[in-house]
Structure formats: structure tokens, C-alpha cells
Design brief:
The complex is a heterodimer of chains A (about 425) and B (about 325).
Chain A (H helix, E strand, L loop, with lengths): L2 E11 L4 E10 L2 E6 L9 E4 L4 E4 L1 E6 L12 H10 L2 E6 L10 H14 L3 E4 L1 E2 L12 H7 L4 E2 L8 H14 L2 E4 L12 E2 L2 H6 L3 E2 L1 H18 L2 E4 L5 H12 L4 E6 H5 L21 H13 L4 E3 L7 H4 L16 H10 L5 H6 L3 H7 L14 E11 L18 E11 L2 E5 L1
Chain B lengths: L36 H18 L13 E6 L5 H12 L3 E6 L8 H13 L4 E6 L4 H6 L5 E7 L5 H15 L6 E5 L6 H12 L3 E5 L15 E3 L2 H5 L4 E4 L15 H8 L3 H4 L7 E3 L12 H4 L7 H21 L9
Parallel strand pairs in B: 1-2, 1-3, 3-4, 5-6, 5-8, 6-7, 8-9
Helix pairs in contact in B: 1-5, 1-11, 2-11, 5-6, 5-11
The chains are: A alpha/beta (about 425), B alpha/beta (about 325).
Amino acid sequence: MTSTLFVNARLVDPATRRDEPGNLLVEDGRIKALGAGVASQGAGRTVDCKGHVLAPGLIDMQVFACEPGGEHKETLATASQSAAAGGVTTIIVMPDTDPIIDEPSLVDFIERRARDTASVHVHPMGALTRALEGKAMSEMGLLSEAGAVAFTQGRKAIMDGEVMRRLLEYAAGLGVLVVHHPEDANLARSGVMNEGELSSRLGLKGIPTEAEVIMVQRDLALAELTGGRLHFAQISCARSLEAIAAAKARGVKVTCAVSAHHLALNENDIATYRTFFKTSPPLRAEADRQAMVDGLARGVIDIVVSSHDPQGPEDKRLPFAEARDGAIGLETLLPVLLELVHKGEMALTDALATVTCKPAQLLGFEAGRLAEGLPADLALIDLETPYVFDASTVKSKSQNSPFDGRRFQGRVLMTQVDGKTVFES
Amino acid sequence: MTGSNSPSAPTPTGTGTEQVEVPYNHRHLLGIQGLVPREITGLLDLADSYVGLSRQVDKKRPLLKGRTLINLFFEPSTRTQASFELAGKRLGADTVNMSVRTSSVTKGETLIDTAVTLNAMRPDILIVRHNSSGAVDLLAQKVDCAVVNAGDGSNEHPTQALLDALTIRRRFGRIEGLTVAICGDVRHSRVARSNIHLLSAMGARIRLIGPPTLLPPSAERLGAEVFTDMREGLKGVDIVMMLRLQSERMEGNYLPSLREFYHLYGLDREKFDYANPGAVIMHPGPMNRGVEIESALADDPEISLIQEQVEMGVAVRMSVLDVLSRRLPNGGPKQ
């Protein structure tokens, strides 16, 4: 029997809003007990938390792990190390790899590969349509039985409304979650940043917020028609938020996420054509960023994702319009959330809920909470120490972080997955 | 009434000499909708008598002698057309089969032109199948003879529902109180629609089972319970009615693949075991073995009524032709 006793911890469980000093005992990979007087019977390890926060490990619902097919940028192993360093104990990896994860045997491949090489839990999303072509639906039943936790088109949207309707209908029958990237491909065509004054000044083709709003509106109407469970992989602008809030009020089964980038950055950060700030959806105006923070605080936005998207110099050291979208984010997900806490935008438990119990609930995982009997997926977090983030120190294979040089306050001291220490600073 | 599995057994009724009164108040048979239970029961009772006739060496009863029956099929069909042709011939009618290529003849005008042309040849009964819902109804408005709907689009296929009902009644002795699950592509199925109307009118409980993409929108408003989980839906069912999956629905748009459909909605022994003890399987044919149904089940004479359905088809169609001919001008009781 292996055991770890965390003592002098500040136990923070977002699901129950528990926030109090106490101990937590891990035995055989599971949380055995937690509370003020908890002690260990055995002779296991004791970790003195020195009053730091002990919280459920983070669940990141949008990670591009690049394996198979893009191992020069990232692998399941390196992505999981990066996750562990960021306090993330579960990552959901996207299916737009090479080959695309649209076959039950490939879901199985990801799971076996993760079991053999990854240090955190890895679950794949399956392709929503075959070969991600946006036409024929994938075998959602067989894929979910194989272990796909949700279905997505990756970075692309389904443009054909009838196809989307059938997908949502079919998914509703299976009770599986459809994750959609809401961006009208025609309106966004060859756009490279947010459309507005800045894109005009920079001479770059813009993507109007309408490209997102129109798709959000269409999908909401189709979700309402079909009764399917719909999750927007990322939203980026205020008007999407309004539409989603109204749909939620009508009882539509919809949820949405925002990336940490869109909570912390805006289009002005692009400044002199810095390609690490090129993302999809694009970084928006400051008013939209503020709306994202506000929407998160109000609970209209359900969860926060890193949208960790490793890209090498070959794809980023290019003129802005030619560079690929994407930024890494596994190790800055928690610091960005803590930034919101320190600024007084959100309470600590609410901020952590968006990356723990809420994604767990969305995916139907028994995780993301501090509760007896659950797997000991834990993050020990120092809320206070300030530091300057150095992108060259990340565990990810790629260093395309937009946060290089940013001042953060708060970092992960230790991460456990199933009671096993996978990161310690 | 049982014993239907012994084709040689003599049946006391149905030697085809007596005239059974059937309350039927329509010129045509365009759908089950519009029929009342009394009429349905009358058609089934009469059909029952024709089962015996069809099992005799001399299967003829020339009630329709001198009548002309035209099989007008705008959609290819083998078994329904043959069944109507046999039914007509056993009743002594002159039958003509006309198959019209579907693709070019879909516009209303052309359909009506065809109807008017055929009408001028003075047929007594027209049997019509068309790929467009409502087309048979439209045609019936333009002719003087009786019209039988042999399937229109996704609307109705009344003789199929009648033969299914007859098969059920002979097996269980009743329809009322039975629970019938209709499984698969309900959305596009005229067989399903006619069966829903008929079986619910006769007091059966209907369940529809399939992926939501193959269930009709607002399916629960049709008076049926709707299930997307087949095992759940088959619990407590007496009759499992499988539908044919049309090939054009198989790939992509409505379904991901055949193997997934079979995995989730194909009837195999394991899923069938959720149904009531003594439950039976029906299928309007032609079957896609290994797509909607496991071969071993389809061929199991203990539980599969599929062959019997085909036999009942002829009897039901004889009954329908008989009843409609009585209401033709200059029809009426025979001497």
C-alpha cells in the first residue's frame, strides 16, 4: 500500500466551495480521507503543504497534442509533461492529427500510447465527420465505445447546416457531446486577425466577429431543434456570449469554453506582427476580452481551456499572414486564471471550477473534485509568489507561448496523478 | 387462431363459396388513415377466408371474372407486384402489369396524363405504387375505377399493414394489448406509417426504435413511444417489426456506417432476448441480412413470421380486391 499524507494544506474543492485548512490522505492512488484531523496509519510519505492550496488537478478540454503525425512539435509524452507542470492532470486531445482519429482502432491507439508514454490522463475526442471533411458522419457509437469522450471537427466548422443538424440529432440519440468551433469559414476566409481598426492599420485581412456570431446562432438553433448536446470549443466575442446566455435561459443544452489567451490578451498584443499571438479564433478587441472575463465570472462561459497548440519555428517564423494559428498554453492556464483571482475578477473556487469540476461534469468524469474515493489527481498551488514567465523553460516540445516575459503570480508546486507525483518544482 | 405454420392443414372456412359481409365505405384503398376498426376487422376476417383458398389445389374463385386490374408501378417492385397479380388472378380478373420508369415521370402533370390515359382503357381496379407521397391520392381523383395504394413515397402502404395485422392476429389471436416495436428507418418508411395507424387503431401499443436521424420529427406525437436505445426499447415487446434500410440512407448523411447501424440497431439474438418470451419477428422484406437483422434470427421458424407475412399478403390483397369490386358500379353481390 502506498500512501501520501498532505498536511497543513489549504483544501480547495470548487465543487463544494470548500476552502479550509486541513490534511488529505492519499492511499493506493485514491483520496482516502480529507479534513482537519486526518492522519496516516501507515508509513507513507508526508508532504508539508505549508498552507498552500491543494486543489483537484486541472482538466483541459482542448489540447492539440500533435501525435500521431506531428511528433516534431509535440507528443503525448511531452504534452503530458507540460500538463503536469501546469497542474493539469487530464488532457483531452483533438482528433485532427495525421491520421485523423475517425476510427475506433485509432482511439485505441491514442489510449494505449498514452498509457505507455504519458504521465497524466489522456482522453481523445473523436472526429465528428469522416476524415473531418464535414460531410459523412463518423461512427460516433463505435468511437465512443472505444473511448472517445466527445466529438469535434477540430479547428474547422461544419458549414453545411443539414449535416450539422443530422450530427446533432444522431449524437443526441447516443447522448454524446458535440464540440464545435464556431466560425463561418466563408466569412473568415483568408482572414488572419480580428477585423477592425487595427487590422486596417496593419494591412491584414480581418475576421469579423460576425463570422463567429452567425455560426453560434445557427448552432444554437440546431441544438434547440434536435435536443443535441452542444459545446462551443471556444468563443471570443461579446455577442456570442449574449446569444449563448439567451439560449441557456431557454433550456438549450449548450455549454461553451474560452481559451486562457482570450481572457488575458487582446488584438493589440499582436503589435509588430508577432505571430505567437495569431490564434483561431483571433484575439479580439479589449471590449470583447473584458466580456469574456465577465461572461466567465457570470457563469455563461462554463469552462476555460488552454487550447494548447504547439507550432515550431517553421510555422511561426513567417510573415504574419502566412504563419500558422496556435499558441501553447498548458503551463499558463492556471497562472492566467490566478491573474483573474488576484485582480478580484473571480473568487478562487469559481476560477478553479472552470478547469476542474465543470469540465468533469461536462465529460461525465468522476474527477475534478476533492472527495473521498476519487482518484488522487491533485495540484499543490502556491498562490502568491510572483515571477516572470520564461517560455524557454516549458516542458512542451514547442515554445510558441504568447506569455513569454509576462509577470504572473502563483504557480504549481506539485502535481499528482492517481496518487503518483508527476511534477514537483 | 394458430396453426398457420402447417400449409397442408385444411381450414374449415374459406373454401371460397360463401359471401362474407364486409363493412367498407370507400371507393378506394388509399391508406389506413380514414379506416375505422370495424372496416379493418372486416377486411382481415375476409382475408382469413382467402388463406384457406390459397392453400387448395384449385385456388380460384372467379368473383372478378371479366374485370380488368392494372398494376401501375412507378417504382420497381417484385413481391408486392407479384402478390397483387396473384390476388387478382385467383379472383379471376384479367391483370396487366405496367412498370413506368420513375425518373422521368415525377411531375404531377405527367402523372395525371397517365391516369387519364389509363382511365380511357376502362380498367376496374388500378393498383398504384409511386415514389412520391400523395401521388396515388392525386391519381385516384382523376379516374373512375377503384384505386389501391401499393405504396406512395413515405406516406402509406396499407396492404402491407393489413397483412402484418393478419399475421399478428393469426399468431396471437388478437392485436389489442400487444406491444409492437417498429425498428430502424421509421422516418422514410411508409410501412411504418401505415402500421402505426392500423395497430394503434386496433389497440396495440407502438414503440419506435432507431437513431434520431431515422425517426420522424415529432415522432412521439404520432402516438408512439420513442426509443433510441434498442435494448431499452425492446423490453416487454411482443412483436419486433424490423424495417428495410434503404441503401441511399446507409452512408454518411443519416448514419455513419452499416457496421455501426448493425452494432446499435441490428436485430441479433442478444438484443432480441430483451423482448418478451414468445416474441416474434416481422420484416416487410426484402431483408438486408447482417444490416438490420441477423440471418439466424430471420430464418428461425419459431420466432420469425417473415414467410407467413408473404403468404398473408396474397390473402389480404384478395380481400381488398374483393371488397372494392363489390362497390364498383355494376358490381354488387354475385349470383
